[in-house]
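#struct-pred
JK: can someone run the complex with fe (iii) ion? inputs below
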Amino acid sequence: MTCAGPSPRRGAAQAVVTPVAGGLVASREGRIVFVGPVPAFESGVQAAPGAVVLDAARGTVIPGFVDPHTHVVYAGDRREELRRRLAGASYAEIASTGGGIVSTVRETREASEDALVESARRRLAEMLRCGTTTAEAKSGYGLETEAELKMLRAIRRLAADQPIDLVPTFLGAHEIPVEFRERRQAYLDLLVDEMIPAVVAGGLAEWCDVFCETGVYTPEESRLILEAGARGGLRPRIHADELAASGGSDVASAVGARSADHLLFVTPESANRMAASGVVATLLPAAAFYLKFGRFAPARMLIERGVAVALATDLNPGGGFTPSMPFVMTLACFAMGMTLEEALVGATLNAAYAIGRDTEVGSLEPGKLMDAVVVDGEVVDLIRVGAPAIRHVVKRGRVVASA
Ligand code: NIG
Ligand code: FE
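RT: done, structure tokens with the ligand placed:
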């Protein structure tokens, strides 16, 4: 399944996976030079002496997964919260007793940059084994200038010294820090006047994100922050309509964000505005699953209204418990009513588009990076949760993980 063709894929095109039966993919110096049937290759292309040959017999080659929403860099863990949630505690109850994002902020502020790099490196290695070859990574557990920069520097170091390509996002507006709760305007000023300029000056992020939600950032505040980021060249994306229809997706449409993420409560009217503005819906069903929200984003409604759907893990210490895009695809199919083909496009080409990497990755096409997953069997084997369906993971033409 090459997923080759124009991006993003919306509406009926969300299901177009462009199969090549009996196909072969060839690459040179990490970039794809040929995709097509074996006889065409044999008549037109010469394998270099000593070229690595991977036999995908009885298997299926698909593009490497792109995970366009992760909080992979953080310190500590919140397993205790998970246990409380399993015993019935709600998201709000956990947050009101010092849990949630603010508890990870405490630990992340105290952690060294080296410690952040090493803990995230282990998580990235898990993601790689699950087939992820490109991922977005956010700051957002520092919530003070130096700690936010520390997170982004950790992401930059990891981008340089492990196989997964990382796309950095500044998420200083992930929460209102506890010490600013009584004077939130002062934190907004800090974000706009100090943090964003420092991130821009350091060239440390491509994207600016905001957690727009009741009790966190209002739509008006979100818009001001995203516009300030955009003035510095940080492209907008947003956490939207996760806990209520709180206006985040409309902010995305108004500022021309590339992606609005979560969207459990997005309305049909807001979906129409997203479609008109070309905002991608990045859906994170594993977060809804592990947070026990009892509902999922309306993927079918979004697809029917012409919104391109991408999928992501939302890897984070709270509800982001899985590194696995195949598990996210499983939930997309069984909890959000997507077809397997729609889920595959959501986890590859549309995910690449959601982070501005669709000219580089997301499909198997000449010119793109040789990033691929060799599935043991068919694509459907990926959603047999727990079965070891991934035979090889290839990044830039090199085998980086094998069963
Ligand atoms: O995408 N919604 C806000 N942020 C994360 C949760 C982060 C956390 O709980 O630490 C999310 O789900
Ligand atoms: Fe998130």
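RT: quick notes.
Residues 11-64+363-402 form a domain with the Urease, subunit C; domain 1 fold (CATH 2.30.40.10).
The chain has a mean pLDDT of 96.
JK: thanks, will look after standup
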